[in-house]
Amino acid sequence: MKAKSEIYGKRLLFVVLLCLALVALSGCKADISGYADQEIRIIGLTEEDFTVTVGELAELDCESATATGTSQKAGTVAAYGPTLQTFAEAYGRSLDEFYSVTFRASDDYDVTLAALTWDSCDVILSVANGSEPLDDYQQPIRLVIPGADSGKWVRMVEEIEFTESE
Fold first, then answer.
1. For the chain, counts of helices (H) and of strands (E)
2. pTM higher than 0.85, yes or no?
3. Per-residue pLDDT tens for 31-54?
4. CB 126 within 8 A of CB 139
């Protein structure tokens, strides 16, 4: 009888560990299918300008973070997406090669970041609000910078321009 309970215990342990591993590897649980094909224009990262989709960003190594804004309007947000560094590295580049990066939104809001920001904080290209998809008014992606002034956060990012150091 003891042998059966040991086998059962080992099987149960295996199932529990397998479930934990699947949860850890599952990545973005948000359903971004409604906007995964939306494109973001990328300027200056490579020799030629190009576009990347929200779905392609979600396939990169992504991070989850919670950030609290400096104003009541900004509130506390959950972000999920690749960091700016991860994105640059996916194209064979390092942020050390750039003087600044400008994020432009469809509502004409734009923010320019310099090394001081990305050296001190993670800059997340958020494709989801944690485990929830981005709201329509935030798509295609949202820039979230935990630990930085929420005035630098940008929603509705449709263009990212990299300016090389001289």
1. 4, 11
2. no
3. 999 999 999 999 999 999 999 999
4. no
